Amino acid sequence: MAVREVGKRGTARETVLKAAQIVFHNSVIDCVVLDISAEGARVRTAVVVTVPDQVTLRVRGGAVFPAHRRWARGTEIGLAFAGPMSLREQQAEEALVIGKVLRDQGLLEALQRLRAVNCFDDPELHAAVEAAEGAHARLEAVLKARTAGREKKSR
Question: Most buried residue among 19, 50, 67, 130 by CB atoms closer than 10 A?
Answer without folding.
Answer: 67
